[in-house]
Write a structure and sequence with these properties.
The protein is an all-alpha fold. Helix content is 82%, strand content 0%.
C-alpha cells in the first residue's frame, strides 16, 4: 500500500476516534475531537497533493480516497445527531423534518453514490463533479468545521461569557436550517448524478 492510500486508511481509522472524543463527557476530549477531525481532513488534502505530485494514482486509491472522505463526514453528522440526544436544544428546537432523517439522507447519498461513482471510475469512466455537488461539499465541510470548532471552544471556555454565547448560537434554529439546506443540496446532487449516469449509459449505447 502506497503512502497516499495509507493516509486514506488513517482517515478512516480516525473517524471513530473523532466520534468517541466528540461524544465524551470530558471537556478536554471534546476539544481534542476538533484537532483529530482537522488532522483527518488535512490527510485528504495531502494525500491528493502527494498522489498528483509523485504519480501515485492507483485503482485502489481512486476507491478508498473518496470513501474515506465520506466516512469522516458521516461520522461528524452521526456525532451531531447523537450530541442532540444529550442536548435536545442543540441545532435549535425547530424540526420541520426530524434531524435523524436529514442525517440519514446525507449519509446514504454520500456513501452509496461515492461507492457507485468510484466503481465507475475504476472502469475508466470519468464523471465531472456538478456545481450543485461542489456547493454542497463546501457548505457541508464549512458547517461541520464551524460546529465542531464552536463546541470545542465552548468546552475549553466552559463557564465564561464566550462559552455561553457559543452555546446560545448552537441552540439557535439557524443551524437546523443550514442542515436542512445541506440535505436538500445533497439530495439534488444525488439526483443530478443519477441523470448524469443515465446520459452516459445512453451515449455508450448509441456509440
Amino acid at each position: 500500500m502506497n503512502f497516499p492510500n495509507t493516509l486514506s486508511l488513517i482517515r478512516i481509522l480516525l473517524a471513530p476516534v473523532f466520534l468517541y472524543l466528540f461524544l465524551s463527557d470530558s471537556t478536554g476530549l471534546v476539544s481534542a475531537s476538533f484537532f483529530v477531525f482537522t488532522i483527518a481532513a488535512l490527510t485528504d488534502w495531502y494525500d491528493g497533493w502527494y498522489a498528483r505530485r509523485y504519480g501515485f494514482k492507483t485503482r485502489w486509491g481512486q476507491f478508498i480516497d473518496p470513501l474515506a472522505d465520506k466516512i469522516l463526514t458521516s461520522a461528524a453528522f452521526i456525532g451531531f445527531y447523537l450530541y442532540k440526544q444529550k442536548d435536545p436544544a442543540f441545532l435549535g428546537g425547530t424540526e420541520i423534518i426530524p434531524i435523524i432523517y436529514l442525517v440519514a439522507v446525507i449519509i446514504f447519498r454520500d456513501i452509496v453514490l461515492t461507492i457507485a461513482r468510484s466503481v465507475q471510475e475504476l472502469k475508466g469512466k470519468e464523471f465531472r463533479t456538478s456545481m450543485v455537488s461542489k456547493t454542497k461539499t463546501f457548505i457541508q465541510m464549512t458547517f461541520i468545521f464551524a460546529v465542531i470548532g464552536l463546541i470545542s471552544l465552548a468546552a475549553i471556555t466552559q463557564g465564561s461569557g464566550i462559552s455561553n454565547s457559543i452555546i446560545n448560537y448552537l441552540h439557535s434554529d439557524i443551524n437546523y436550517y443550514i442542515l436542512l439546506l445541506i440535505t436538500l443540496l445533497t439530495a439534488a446532487s444525488g439526483i443530478a448524478y443519477v441523470f448524469e449516469s443515465g446520459e452516459n449509459i445512453e451515449k455508450q449505447t448509441y456509440n
